[in-house]
Design a protein that fits this description.
globular; Rossmann fold; 762 residues; 33 helices; binds molybdenum atom
Length: 762
Amino acid sequence: MTAHKKSDAYQHASGGWGSVKAVASVLVKEEAPVATSRVLVHQNKPDGFMCVSCSWAKPAHPHPFEFCESGAKATAWDTTSRRVDPEFFQQHTVSELEHWHDHDLENAGRLVAPLRYDAITDRYVEVKWEHAFAEIARELNALDPDAAVFYTSGRASLETAYMYQLFARMYGTNNLPDSSNMCHESTSVGLKEAIGVGVGTITLEDFKHTDLMFFFGHNVGTNSPRMLHDLQEARQRGVPIITFNPIREPGLVSFVNPQSPAQMLSPGATQISTQYLQVKAGGDSAAIAGVCKALIALDDRARADRAARVLDTEFIAQHTVGFEAFAAAMRDMKWQDIERVSGLARDALTEVAREYAKAKAVIAHYGMGLTQHRLGVQNVRMLVNLLLLRGNIGKPGAGPSPIRGHSNVQGQRTVGITEKPKLAPLDKLAEQFRFEPPRHEGMATVDACRGVIDGRVRAVLQLGGNLVRSVPDRDAIEPAWRKLRLTVGIATKLNRSHLVHGQVSYILPCLSRIEIDERGGVPQAVSMEDSTGCMHGSRGVAQPASDRLLSEPAIVAGIAEATLGAHTAVDWQAWSNDYARIRDAIAQTYPDIFHDFNQRLWTPGGFHRPLPACERKWQTQSGKAEFMVPESLDEDPDLAERSADDLRLFTLRSDSQFNTTIYSHDDRFRGIRGSRMVLLMNERDIARRGLAAGEQVVLETRSVDARTRRVAGLKIVPFDLPDGCVGGYYPECNPLLPLAHHAKESKVPAAKSIPVRIVAVR
Ligand SMILES: Nc1nc2c(c(=O)[nH]1)N[C@H]1C(S)=C(S)[C@@H](COP(=O)(O)OP(=O)(O)OC[C@H]3O[C@@H](n4cnc5c(=O)[nH]c(N)nc54)[C@H](O)[C@@H]3O)O[C@H]1N2
Ligand SMILES: Nc1nc2c(c(=O)[nH]1)N[C@H]1C(S)=C(S)[C@@H](COP(=O)(O)OP(=O)(O)OC[C@H]3O[C@@H](n4cnc5c(=O)[nH]c(N)nc54)[C@H](O)[C@@H]3O)O[C@H]1N2
Ligand SMILES: [Mo]
């Protein structure tokens, strides 16, 4: 790899010619340039398919090319001409494939036929779909239903997700963890407690009415780049954007719109963030506390001077509870502690408070930088506290804006994928389908991993996803995974979780959403919910990678029918032959959200789900929006003794990956090329330890139990970060993340602040 020069990374704004070149090169690399470029025209269009990459809102009046570099990469990745066919497995045993890099496994191409692992030859061999369904059913029926786990990665459609949860419950379990458990579950828990809905309250319309935006811990330039258009438009109206992020991410600094010829030809880029605060990893609760404290002090002064109040006292009195206790806690907080934990100066935070006090309508965007912490739920609650102080919820141009990950992760929760019985409409399902759903709590992702390790879990079905790579404690998970009785991967591409498999193991290849999905000669459509609560139809346009593939609804129907036999009130085959019937069932279960679902499917810009908080109706315990007093500002409440050697590791995504799918080893925006085995560290921390750039080190997690967790061979790259914080890549650093190191209320693994030390140079 090339050594990183600090200036390299930040020479270019995100977007621009680099982006155009990167899209062109990925199309050529995937050997499907012509077909793919035709496909891209339909991406995120009201009558086309919804991008498989991020979940950002899709406008009613799209740009001529409503896609970004990341979305184009994701499309090219799925429409590649390469194939992993049964002959591929004749050439490669599973033991041999285990030595391949994750990138090479997926890069080998699209899976085309259902496969069963054959222990005698150590190969996957082709089977008939009916045989696969029949054996999976036999295996499931031999188990206690609670020994089986039905994981969903956030890409599958509303139709598939609804069928999948119904099947799991009819089979007898609420073990329905999903990727949200590792992602925005801190939002689902925190926002629900605070404002009565577990999702963001803004839509694209609010961008037109906002006066100020906050941006906490989300790397918009690579992870939801289409949003840069909306941010740029707001900036051009003079709306300030205040960013909190340990790294100066190029997309948050400036942007050139690669789809605007005028901008591409002129030298300037739009400055995105007007204030950039390099908060310490895990320092957000402290930083927000600082802003709240300063704001309350401004208000105290205004009151004393009989000047106009800074806080929205009317809103607070009418709509909230807990203000007095919160304000008292903020007044008592010491600036010294706030500065130490956040790494930010009192003056800078006070300046943010002043700016905030001037704005009438404020949106707070955020991502994994807030949610993936031990205090992830508290971080979300603190952000809500800040918004409540000035009535910034339930009015145009204002509200919390959690930026979701996978393209339908929010929607899957909406249609019943949840391990928490209280969040699923069990009575309704019982009545609609005449069965008795299980009422006890199921397993979230970390519980499921714990269950695999201690042997309680015997079967794991994955509807998308790559759990042996994405979850914590890899070194414990991998050997445990091999002891499972049954593993089933419904997937588009070969990944590590197919190689680290159970005794009975199936790979069931499915159509990608980009592909034409015909059932009985009739093209079918599916749907998804974006980050702003809008539902969109999606119809594939590309030729399927193989005629042996089945759609996700057809695969779920096949397994359900084989497992449940004739004992259900669902005609699974009829559903899988006409997805409109699944939508009718969804509409019946959730009439408030999905009434007239089929008629509204193609609403330009999507149809919005009703959210009581948008109308200042609060479905919380108290019936009001709730302030919360932070429990602690300290990110590692359970780490007793500290030393000067301690570092806090946050795991990052590059611009060339989608979660565990690695498109290339480069991270163009951050100027890192050729390797992902790096440790980003600031010059002061490098020097203080007597280390040098380019040296390879071994990182070890500070002990939380008897297990030693290490990753070796991480090359030191000098990077502009706050003191004591280091960055590494997800999933390479996942062996360092302890399963128990998660947010206690939401169980989201604390992937953004892992206490580590450098223990050796190697
Ligand atoms: N191209 C592409 N798009 C994606 C994905 C992808 O992998 N590739 N993944 C999808 C998924 S599932 C998700 S969840 C989203 C993830 O998108 P993000 O929410 O952007 O998540 P990360 O990339 O993990 O990084 C989060 C950002 O938080 C910052 N950060 C780290 N620690 C802290 C902290 O303690 N405080 C603050 N304030 N900031 C911090 C990091 O510097 C980084 O800029 O993107 C989705 N979109
Ligand atoms: N250390 C650390 N760990 C993390 C994170 C982090 O920031 N740091 N982030 C967490 C987050 S936010 C998330 S969301 C999880 C994600 O974790 P997972 O959901 O486990 O992983 P993905 O990488 O999203 O899943 C990729 C696989 O999905 C399959 N796939 C792709 N498209 C489709 C499709 O259309 N249908 C089907 N059926 N399969 C498909 C492909 O085979 C591909 O290999 O990881 C979490 N883990
Ligand atoms: Mo995610």
